[in-house]
Amino acid sequence: MRKLIILFFAGIFGFVAVASAQTPAQAPAQPTTPTRPKTATTARSGTTTGHAYDRALLRPALLKEKAPETFQVKFDTTRGEFTVSITRAWAPIGADRFYNLVKHHFYDSASFFRVVPGFIVQFGLSAYPPVSAAWQHADLQDDPVTQSNKLGYLTFATAGPNTRTTQVFISLKDNAGLDRQGFAPFGVVDPPGMKVVNMFYDQYGDNAGPDQEQIAKQGEPYLDKGWPKLDSIKTATLVGAAGAAAPAKPAAAPKTAPAATKPQ
To answer: Band of the pLDDT at 14, cuts 50, 70, 90?
Structure first.
C-alpha cells in the first residue's frame, strides 16, 4: 500500500512517498497514526456484524460515473455527524472518484487512521481486505490545484505524481504549503462539522500508529488489537446537491516550527 509523508521544515513542506497508503505528514509537535480503516464490527466503528460490502467495489475500472457539478456527503462517525460539500470544478477527476466511492459505500466502517493536531485528519482505506486489494493500484491522474488547502478542505492524499487512489485528508488549519506539492482540494467540511472533526482521537502519535499494509491485509482485528481508540466512519452517504458552503476560518499558525518526520 502507498504511504505519503509530508515533511514540515519551519514552514516549508515536502513529502516522501512510501509504498501504497497516502498520508500528509505531521505539522506540529503532536503526532498521529498512519493506519487503515476498519472492517466490519467493533465498538469503535459502530457497525453491524456481518455487514457486506458492495461487490461493485471489487471492480474499480467500472466505477466511472461523472459526479454532479456540486453534491454533498454526510458522514456519520463515532463522534457525531458532519457534511462535506463537493465542487466538481475544483478538481474534476478527484471529485468523480470520490463520488463513485461514496455512492458504493467504500468509506463505511473506515477509521480515521491518522489524526495530527493542527495539521490533518486522514482516512480512506477500506474496512475490507478484498476491497483494499482491488483499489491498491487504481491510480488517478492529478488534477490542477485550483483551491488552497485551507482549514476544513478535503483533498486526496498521494504517494507522488498521479498516484491518488482512495485516501483523503481534511486540513485542520490553513495548509497552503501543500498547494505547491500538487494536493488539489475538491470539497470542504461545513463549519459546524469541524467541531466533530476536531474531536477525533489523536493521541497514538504520527510515528507510532498502525502499519497501513497490515490494516489492508488484516482489517479491523489488527486495529482492535493495537489501536482500539481510533474513531471511525459509520456511514458516508450522498445527500444531494451542495449549497453555498461557507469556508471555515483558517486556524492560527503554530508558534514553533514542526520537526521533520521520518519516512515510514
So the answer is: very low
- 236-261: per-residue pLDDT in tens? 999 976 544 444 444 443 333 333 23
Residue 238 cell numbers, joined: 450522498
Number of CB atoms found within 10 A of residue 10's CB: 9
Task: Provide the grid cell at 232.
Answer: 471511525
- Residue 14: burial class (beta carbons within 10 Å; 0-12, 13-18, 19+): middle
Domain extents for the chain?
A: 2-47+60-240
Nearest to 194 by CA among 51, 41, 83, 67: 83
What one-letter code names the amino acid at 81? Answer: E
CATH topology classification for 2-47+60-240: Cyclophilin (2.40.100)
- 104 CB-near residues (< 8 Å, 6+ apart): 54, 56, 57, 63
Phi, psi of 238 (to 5 degrees): -70, 130
Which residue, among 185, 178, 248, has the nearest Cα to 8 in the 3D structure? 178
Integer Cα distance of 64 and 123 in angstroms: 21
Please check whether residue 142 is in contact with residue 2, taking contact to mean a CB–CB distance below 8 angstroms. no
